[in-house]
Amino acid sequence: MKLIVCGAAGEVTGSCYVLETAQARVMIDFGLHQGGREEDDHNRRLVPPDLSRFDAVVLTHAHIDHIGRLPLLAGAGYSGPIFASRATCDLVPIMLRDTARLQEADAAREARRGREGSRPALPALYTSDEVERTLPQLRHLDMDSLTPVAPGVRVRLVDSGHMLGSASIELRATDGPGKPERVIIFSGDIGPRGVPLLRDPASPAPKDGSRVDLAIMESTYGDRDHRPLADTVEEASAIVREAAWDKQRILIPAFAIGRSQVIIYYLAMLMQSGRAPRFPVHLDSPMAIEAIKLYRAHAQLLDADSLAQLRAGSFPLDMPELHLVKSAEESKLLNDAPGPIAIIAGSGMCNGGRIVHHLRHGLWRKDVHVLIAGYQAAGTLGRQLVNRAPEVRIFGQTIPVRAKIHTLGGFSAHAGRTELIQWAKTLHDASRPARWVLTHGENPQRQSLSAGLAPFIGQAPTLPAYGDASEL
Ligand SMILES: [Zn+2]
Question: How far is the CA of 63 from the centre of ligand 1 (A)?
Fold first, then answer.
């Protein structure tokens, strides 16, 4: 049998692996390549062959760079199961429907440009219809139990602490009766330790002590550690306290799932502990509002502190000051709302969504703070703000930036270098993987992690290119 790397090879997006045995073909993740036009081209060109001929698909988690191309399967005629944890099964519809909307909007913009003759138009990668055809294929797996997913293939999901429902995978496969069983570990994305709401990542080492044949590990932050979370929280608290006392406005661009909830958690903590005055916080994101419901529905996945809070009768994301802004009309009314006020809205990189409207109305004002708590890709409005642009263009208008821009490191959903090495060391000590493969990281990051791991695991991990296969 062989395991083929079909994405996230020397980059952080487009995760996809294909396992081919004598009796089954299984796909692990089918993510979107994200970035610019080149990545968009990869989404169409770098696709595993024979999409209709898989026996099963298994997902590590619901981020779009791991699930964003699933609708291509339905489009190609695949009608088999897509296995994932229960929480991931609930998050996938929210994520894919949103992505299809963005794809369709992009395609309409491309078509307009095409008519103007600037360059040939690209159609949407897939449509909302294909998303709807994909969703009934989702099948949930219970965490932590080995379950058959295809002939001769079993998988076990283990909490990877990266987002609600995220998992590392222990996969066991055989070419047929009497043939040896091979064990492959997929790290998925590994979360940092000690963050609120989520549990620390668990080790996917086989419980029966079996030796692992192949360990495939992410390397996103393989070259560096994050700033300590406690320092970031302290800095953010000082900004929020001061802005609140001065009755100012705080705009927080945030990803809908994960980051928005962590920010609410800390704002609630600040107000409930009396370290900041109580003031209204508006969550202006239908997707983030949906996600809060899922945190509640899957509360058994939350960390010990959150569970203790639940047993004491309160939910960690409940705060009386939190207003859920559902309609665009309500969102517009916030422009005239008096301070102090905080508005959390997407998109996380300010390249679309309701936050752009709030920035248009707020950036020119001196009494506005913008708290940037996530990664801002090159070319986005968020990156311009981080780079202290004196003015920015929004909806064709030039807006001077007089607001105070605060960039906070330390809220990452990914383990830093030291935690990645610790994760690998735990797996090595328990099950001595025969081979290691590093993916989901740019080359400098995975080379650095490779050098950091070698002394512990006694070998140099493989750094595969797209299409490279490991024979097992
Ligand atoms: Zn992820």
Answer: 5
Instruction: Measure 77 CA to ligand 1 centroid, in angstroms.
Output: 27
Residue type, 1: M
Q: How far apart are CA 341 and CA 16, in angstroms?
A: 42
Coil/strand/helix, residue 251: strand
Is 371 in contact with 409 (CB distance < 8 Å)? no
Q: Count how many Cα atoms sit within 13 Å of the Cα of residue 436 in the half-sphere of its side chain.
A: 29
Read off the pLDDT of residues 160-218 as tens digits, 9 standing for 90 and up: 999 999 999 999 999 999 999 999 999 999 999 999 999 999 999 999 999 999 999 99
Domain ranges of the chain: 2-224+413-471, 229-407
Tens digits of residue pLDDT in 16-35: 999 999 999 999 999 999 87
C-alpha 339/C-alpha 440 separation (Å) is 42
DSSP string, 95-124: HHHHHHHHHHHHHHHHHHHHHHTSSPPPPP
- Taking the complete model, does pTM exceed 0.85, yes or no? yes
- Return all residues near 227 (Cβ < 8 A) that are at least 6 apart: 409, 410
For 203, the token pair is 């080790």
CA of 189 to the centre of ligand 1 (A): 5
C-alpha 305 – ligand 1 centre gap (Å): 23
The fold of 2-224+413-471 is Metallo-beta-lactamase; Chain A (3.60.15)
The angle that helices 229-245 and 259-272 make with each other, rounded to 10 degrees, is 60
What is the dotted CATH code of the domain comprising 229-407? 3.40.50.10890
Cα 397 to middle of ligand 1, angstroms: 34
pLDDT tens profile 369-391: 999 988 787 788 999 999 999 99
Q: How far apart are CA 179 and CA 441, in angstroms?
A: 34
pLDDT tens digits, one per residue of 245-264? 999 999 999 999 999 999 99
Residues 6+ apart with CB under 8 A from 331: 284, 325, 345, 354, 357
- DSSP summary character for residue 312: T
What does 274-310 look like in DSSP terms, one character per residue?
Answer: TSS----EEEE-HHHHHHHHHHHHTGGGS-HHHHHHH
CA of 85 to the centre of ligand 1 (A): 14
Q: How far is the CA of 226 from the centre of ligand 1 (A)?
A: 16
pLDDT for position 111: 83
